[in-house]
Amino acid sequence: MDGPYPVVPADLAAAAAARGARLLRRRRTLRRLGWVLLLAAAAAFTVWAALTRPWAAPPSGVSPPLEVW
After folding, report:
1. Where is the chain membrane-spanning (predicted)?
2. Distance (Å, whole) CA 46 – CA 38
């Protein structure tokens, strides 16, 4: 293992730490944005479901025949 070694930049550790901090900040921001979008979608779905009540049967367009006793 004796021999000439490549020259390592003096600020390699500082540059790697700065890049790692940027990646962590970006990842944290994207995760928060994802949670906000998920909660907004859940709130929008809840409001839509409360207003339209999709689980209820639609009203019938035809009334039953009138029977006279």
Report:
1. 33-51
2. 12
Domain-by-domain residue ranges, the chain?
A: 13-53
What pTM does this model have? 0.67
Q: What angle do CA 40, 45, 49 make, to 5 degrees?
A: 150
Q: What amino acid is encoded at 21 in this protein?
A: A
Length of the chain: 69
* pLDDT tens for each residue of 10-33: 999 999 999 999 999 999 999 999
Dihedral sign of CA atoms 22, 25, 28, 30 in order: negative
- 52: tokens are 């339209």
